[in-house]
């Protein structure tokens, strides 16, 4: 209400009166909530579909967590691989007889290792295994990490391109077994609801994610809300937090810098030969722009042998400004593909795509099998027919003039757009002009996108602000309270402590 008052410049009474009109007409749902001890909480207003989605998510998670059908059975124990931490062993033990398990931890803590061990346990118990992630790139990483087939959640549910409806739903659920969802921090409320509607109490569900990363781009804060409910000492939902950094990751200054950021410590540059993490000082956007271009076009290819078009990704807090995605994309395109065959899309601000350009799909296109966040290279242009061909994950994808609206240059992308992806090298400008976006989880997400090299081109004051500003932008949701209420209603007075907080 305070935000609406400020933005609309109207008195609170007028705003409240108009909101109540929407409530009475059914355009909004007013949810009067209670806290953990029955105390009244500030009410929330929802569009009806999000209100229903939040209720469905809470109810279905409760069904799965409590195994309402009792037909799931307990898996027999399988010898785990050697060298697992106590936390990893706890995750395997939890999934053997639980319906819902949450596995969370930062980089280098072994989430992929324990996920593989859990999959092996499922297969040894002759349980089908379904692996999925919110984006195509995250699904590809999951498949590489586990050696198993993984897909997007949309493909898992078999979305029907013409209607946008899912083939698998409450009336036609997925085959029973273990469902593993990676990068669960990216799950927004509508996608979480669609997934859960296709599950039954006989399924096992493993949610894997890093709760310290940015929340989903879409509405809701599903992973954090479920974690907040599961963290209650009387919760029946096992939460396994992996905190031990394994030896092979301890030598990575990317990993150690990411964990330093989480502790509120400004990371230092790696001084070792062939280091992995560097902070390059830039006090203003002009200098940052210059340093980013030099790093990508000269220093990184020369020192690390990386292809600047396909293996180095610029991640920006914002789109505008000299150190934003728009200006850096224009400069990098001019450097990499000047003189190459091009396709010009007319308009007040003409858009140009050239052969060799790095581009990103920005919307899900289920009929053509390309999804928001997919990155590829332009391989051919036909200016007369206004058609362009992009190679994405080895497959050629054709774009006509209408479909090109969903394509953008991707030498530089926003940090939000990079969620679920990893790149051999990332370069991140951080400046005072980005101050509205600078938060710890934004910086942490950017740093953890890098595999071999991370370079921060930063104003020291902006870097310090990002590290110290831990107040993630607030999302107004009621899923935590709704899930707690559903669990308590089903459990009655029974209390089962299942929280696991260990290395």
UniProtKB/TrEMBL annotation:
GO terms for molecular function: ATP binding; single-stranded DNA helicase activity. It comes from the Bacteria. This is AAA family ATPase. The keyword ATP-binding applies. It comes from Nannocystis pusilla. Residues 97-243 form the AAA+ ATPase domain. SMART domains: AAA. One of its GO terms (cellular component) is exodeoxyribonuclease V complex. Keywords: ATP-binding, Nucleotide-binding. Transmembrane segments: none annotated. PANTHER family: DNA HELICASE B, DNA2/NAM7 HELICASE FAMILY MEMBER. GO terms for biological process: DNA recombination. The lineage of its organism: Bacteria, Pseudomonadati, Myxococcota, Polyangia, Nannocystales.
């Amino acid at each position: 209400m305070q935000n609406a008052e400020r933005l609309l410049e109207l008195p609170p009474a007028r705003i409240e009166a108009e909101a109540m009109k929407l409530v009475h007409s059914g355009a909004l749902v007013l949810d009067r909530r209670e806290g953990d001890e029955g105390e009244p909480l500030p009410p929330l207003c929802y569009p009806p579909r999000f209100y229903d989605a939040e209720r469905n998510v809470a109810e279905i998670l409760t069904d799965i967590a409590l195994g309402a059908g009792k037909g799931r059975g307990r898996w027999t124990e399988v010898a785990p691989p050697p060298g697992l931490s106590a936390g990893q062993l706890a995750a395997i033990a939890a999934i053997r007889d639980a319906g819902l398990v949450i596995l969370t931890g930062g980089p280098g803590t072994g989430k992929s290792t324990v996920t593989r061990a859990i999959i092996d346990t499922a297969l040894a118990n002759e349980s089908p295994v379904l692996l999925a992630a919110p984006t195509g790139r995250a699904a590809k990483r999951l498949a590489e990490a586990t050696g198993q087939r993984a897909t997007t959640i949309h493909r898992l549910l078999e979305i029907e391109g013409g209607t946008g409806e899912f083939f698998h739903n409450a009336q036609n659920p997925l085959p029973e077994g273990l469902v593993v969802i990676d990068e669960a921090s990216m799950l927004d409320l509508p996608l979480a609801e669609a997934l859960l509607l296709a599950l039954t109490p006989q399924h096992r569900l493993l949610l894997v994610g890093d709760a310290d990363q940015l929340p989903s781009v879409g509405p809701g804060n599903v992973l954090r809300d479920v974690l907040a409910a599961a963290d209650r000492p009387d919760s029946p939902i096992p939460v396994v937090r992996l905190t031990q950094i394994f030896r092979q990751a301890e030598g990575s200054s990317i990993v150690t810098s990411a964990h330093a950021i989480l502790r509120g410590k400004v990371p230092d540059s790696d001084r070792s030969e062939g280091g992995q993490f560097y902070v390059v000082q830039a006090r203003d956007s002009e200098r940052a722009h210059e340093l980013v271009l030099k790093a990508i076009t000269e220093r990184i290819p020369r020192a690390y042998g990386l292809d600047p078009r396909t293996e180095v990704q610029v991640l920006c807090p914002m789109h505008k400004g000299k150190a934003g995605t728009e200006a850096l994309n224009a400069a990098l395109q001019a450097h990499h593909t000047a003189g190459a065959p091009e396709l010009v899309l007319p308009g007040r601000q003409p858009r140009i795509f050239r052969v060799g350009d790095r581009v990103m799909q920005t919307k899900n296109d289920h009929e053509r099998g390309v999804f928001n966040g997919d990155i590829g290279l332009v391989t051919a242009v036909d200016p007369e027919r206004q058609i362009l061909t992009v190679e994405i994950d080895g497959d050629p994808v054709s774009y006509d003039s209408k479909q090109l609206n969903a394509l953008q240059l991707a030498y530089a992308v926003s940090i939000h757009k990079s969620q679920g992806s990893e790149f051999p090298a990332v370069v991140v400008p951080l400046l005072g002009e980005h101050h509205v976006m600078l938060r710890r989880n934004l910086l942490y997400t950017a740093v953890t996108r890098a595999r071999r090299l991370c370079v921060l081109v930063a104003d020291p004051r902006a870097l310090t602000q990002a590290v110290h500003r831990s107040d993630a932008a607030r999302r107004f949701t009621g899923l935590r309270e709704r899930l707690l209420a559903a669990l308590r209603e089903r459990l009655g007075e029974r209390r089962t402590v299942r929280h696991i907080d260990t290395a």
